[in-house]
Design a protein that fits this description.
With about 300 residues, the chain is an alpha/beta fold. The chain contains nine helices and 14 strands. It has a single domain, classed as 3-Layer(aba) Sandwich (Rossmann fold). Bound molecules: adenosine-5'-diphosphate and magnesium ion.
Length: about 300
């Protein structure tokens, strides 16, 4: 993943030459700013003027720039974009795992950061699921699910009750005593989802959670996730690089453009949840997929013109 050829701006700092990966003025000329901000009072989560610059010894990467996005309570938002466009970075900023270089995140009206301190109240609303389930191999399903509760000092009987309830919710009843190695990839992700839900977060942040699954399991998990989101009334922010998955799940698809990541477009998908896979055969669905593909291809071509490679 190198974009050196695209750079004609160089900055000298700390005695070395650092490559500035993205040149902002040109980007802004090619794409006007797309704001995903919602009218006052409508958003549960707000990203305001977010940018993120990673500075290492040899390279300066502007991973995200000027992101304005509001997300409604119980909305299902997918973040779509090609590899390297900043999806994970944006999700990690939402999760309070990294600090934005500029801008502010608020959750239910509370700033996620006050200076260098994260707001615990805002953090408690969040549950996170990554592409890899990250289970403890020597813990049973039930203990993996209940781990966040154990860390929060919830007593054993309540942990057991809650992990059984969650195992049932994610379709793992009967597997409470199994070890992760006895489970399929889809089942391991179910454990990760149950674990993220263990302390009843209002917001579920998911980073390509089904990216490593085969197509059929992935379809099944997409159906299940809709049911789980509804049963828990959770707001979901779901990262994917699959256009079809993004449109199938979302109330709104936020397409990110690469280098630096910024909002390229926002597509509203009106069909009611839970949706069946049949909607993927509908013209309206297919038109949305095609239009998003066109936008992604256009972006790839822009990067190629600038002499970079897309991943
Ligand atoms: N910790 C980091 N340090 C330096 N650069 C990073 C770091 N994390 C991400 N990046 C860079 O930021 C850009 C966006 O990365 P990422 O958010 O992982 O993209 P995506 O999830 O869309 O594939 C990439 O160019 C990546 O190399
Ligand atoms: Mg990623």
């Amino acid at each position: 993943m190198s974009n050196d050829g695209a750079s004609d701006v160089r900055a000298t700092s700390g005695g070395g030459t650092r490559v500035l990966e993205a040149e902002e003025p040109r980007v802004q000329r090619e794409h006007p700013h797309v704001s995903g901000a919602l009218p006052d009072g409508e958003a549960e989560i707000e990203l305001h003027g977010i940018s993120k610059r990673f500075t290492t010894r040899t390279r300066d990467t502007l991973a995200l720039t000027n992101i304005d996005l509001g997300i409604r309570k119980q909305e299902f938002v997918t973040l779509l974009g090609q590899s390297g466009c900043g999806k994970t970075t944006l999700l990690r900023i939402l999760a309070g795992l990294i600090h934005p270089t500029e801008g502010e995140v608020t959750i239910a009206g509370r700033p996620l950061w006050r200076g260098d301190h994260r707001d615990d109240e805002a953090l408690r609303k969040l549950g996170i699921v990554f592409q890899d389930a990250h289970l403890f191999p020597w813990f049973t399903v039930e203990d993996n699910i209940a781990l966040p509760l154990k860390l929060r000092k919830v007593d054993k009987a309540e942990r057991r009750r809650r992990s059984h309830e969650l195992a049932e919710l994610v379709g793992l009843q009967g597997f409470e005593k199994a070890l992760p190695r006895e489970l399929s990839g889809g089942m391991r992700q179910r454990v990760a989802i149950a674990r993220a839900l263990s302390y009843r977060p209002e917001i579920l942040l998911m980073d390509e959670p089904f990216g490593a699954l085969d197509a059929m399991t992935r379809d099944k998990m997409n159906m299940e996730l809709q049911r789980i989101a509804e049963a828990t009334s959770a707001t979901v922010v779901f990262v994917t690089h699959s256009i079809a998955e993004a449109v199938f799940l979302a109330d709104r698809v936020v397409l990110l453009s690469a280098r630096p990541g910024r909002i390229r477009s926002i597509t509203t998908v009106d069909a009611r949840h839970p949706r069946s896979l049949d909607i993927t055969a509908q013209t309206n669905f297919q038109e949305k997929v095609l239009e998003l593909r066109r936008q992604l291809t256009e972006d790839e071509e822009r990067i190629a013109r600038q002499g970079g490679v897309s991943e």
